[in-house]
Amino acid sequence: MMDFPPVPARDARLVLIVDDVPDNLAMLHDALDAAGYMVLVATNGEAALACAAQALPDIVLLDAMMPGMDGFEVTRRLKADARTAPIPIIFMTGLTETEHLIAALAAGGVDYVTKPIKPAEVLARMGVHLGTARRARAQQQQAVQARSALDAFGHASLTVRIADGRVLWQTPLARELLRRHFGIDGLRAVLPADVLAWVQRQQATLALHAEPPRWTLDQGQGSLVLRLHPPSPEADEGELLLVMREESDLAVRETLRQGFGITGKEAEVLYWLAQGKINRDIADIVSCSPATVKKHLERIYAKLGVETRTAAAAMAMARLPA
């Protein structure tokens, strides 16, 4: 297996140049190095695929015509791998016929430069595509983080395909709720027929709703509330975001436990405190002594950074779903 230089910190701009002509590699390497880029090189398609998979460069400059595996095939393979698919690829080609340029873009390239290579032109085009790719990655990361953060508040989100109800993406809590309430598990699972029918009915009028359409299902283990949202920016056409929330005492206590980083028993005590119960009542409910409840409350106050039961109850109420 080939050895490649260590992967730099992700704030560095890492470029992979692929060309079977050493003079081309040397010229571009020197120009990019002088411009502040970190540069990797490969002289054939197989080496390019291995290097890209290991180093995950920010951008690839790829010769279209090489012996063996050409640049078109290299691009198709990079785009078929989820890890390397987002990397922008700029073709370097001496071919100016329209059919070749169309083939480069069809394979997955974002741009092309013609030979003989002009370093200033390459740098300018790279700057544009690096900025676009960086913004796209940031938006996607923010969207994933925002949806995953819903788990801490007892909300579970998943992306579904409207046509057949197939689950394309889900948070950990969504996976658990699907398994518990519907007996389905894993990515590529399909929503139950009645849920899919509701999604399809609501999808046609989604833009007309002032609030996300809501459906409450009584599953015998507490109610499961479904809310349908427009697709996130990175979702493909024909997909919708479905947010689920379990409405039960158990789910609420789990929300408190995750949200405040407290133990399960502390979450139970805090839940009943938020319901206005006094220590004696809480002790009866959770089957312990009032003194034990007091000790739990002392630890809860310390973890929440408050000094009174009123402040703790207020924080709990603010965290709980309406």
Structure description:
28% of the residues are buried. The strands form two sheets. Strands 2-1-3-4-5 form a five-stranded parallel beta sheet, with helices on both faces. The protein has three domains: 14-145, 3-Layer(aba) Sandwich (Rossmann fold); 154-247, PAS domain (Beta-Lactamase, 2-Layer Sandwich); 250-319, Orthogonal Bundle (Arc Repressor Mutant, subunit A). By secondary structure, the chain is α/β, with parallel strands linked by helices. The protein has helices spanning 22-34, 45-55, 71-80, 98-107, 119-149, 172-182, 193-203, 249-260, 264-274, 279-286, 290-304, 309-319, and strands at 14-18, 38-42, 59-63, 89-93, 111-114, 155-161, 167-170, 214-218, 223-229, 239-247. The model is unreliable at 1-11 (pLDDT under 50).
| Strand line-up in the sheet with most strands | 2-1-3-4-5
The portion of residues assigned to helices is 40-55%
CATH architecture of the largest domain: 3-Layer(aba) Sandwich
CATH secondary-structure class of the largest domain: Alpha Beta
Percent in strands: 15-25%
Q: What is the mean pLDDT?
A: 82
Quickly count the domains: 3
Rg result: 27 Å
Strand count: 10
Low-confidence stretches: 1-11
What is the first-to-last residue Cα distance? 57 Å
By DSSP (H or I, 4+ residues per run), the number of helices equals: 12
CATH topology term of the largest domain: Rossmann fold
Sheet bearing the most strands, described?
5 strands, parallel
